[in-house]
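Handout, section 3.2

Students often ask what a structure token actually looks like in practice. Rather than define it abstractly, here is a full record for DER reductase. The first block is the sequence as you would receive it.
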Amino acid sequence: MEADLSFRGRRALVTGAGKGIGRAVAVALSRAGAGVTALSRTAADLESLKRECPGIETLCLDLADWEAVEAAVGAAGPFELLVNNAAVAELQPFLEVTRSALQRSLDVNFGAVLHISQIVARQMIAQGVPGAIVNVSSQASKRALRDHAVYCSTKSALDMLSKVMAMELGPHKIRVNTVNPTVVMTDMGRINWSDPQKSAAMINRIPLGKFAEVDDVVNSILFLLSDKSAMTTGSSLMIDGGFLVS
């Protein structure tokens, strides 16, 4: 889709940009003309991203460190586009959920999205420019999954946060939406779902009979960031092959 959409002259921040979906979004936005800042906590991933796409600026940060994030993102802005992609998935049975797993998941999957969105939205408002925010959620926000008590809950909270953001930021011409993918065939996704028995149980619940590819998610994010979705805010775009209808 990047060939059909232009983001020339616009500045974008992408979190969790070292690998997978976030990395692919950062590269696609850069190739579509945006000035991209990629945020990750892994320096090696950012270095390889710079080699792949030298025009991208990078920020190496732990999103749980609010003070560091406030200073670094504030200095790097202003931005008109934001993709909150960073997330953690610490899978544990409900009876074995630990406090540390709960806190880390809340910090990254929910708290960091709220915080970075505050920083960037304030910049947009101060500049008097319209903007678009896309939060990467999951089909797990809509359907209970075994061993996903914390992950499902944080993604569900993210969906509602996004709706409230859309309501409060709409008068400032800032749109906020989520994408909610099924399993995505990132490198990690291929490893985690390589067992045919495990993957068959999930694929059998997807009417299209397959998992999502990275480009399926990237194209949806670019659409929601673009002016082609100018009347869309507060929505969750399911990229699940029909999982929720089965």
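Discussion prompt for tutorial groups: The chain has one domain: 11-182+214-239. How would you have guessed this from the sequence alone?
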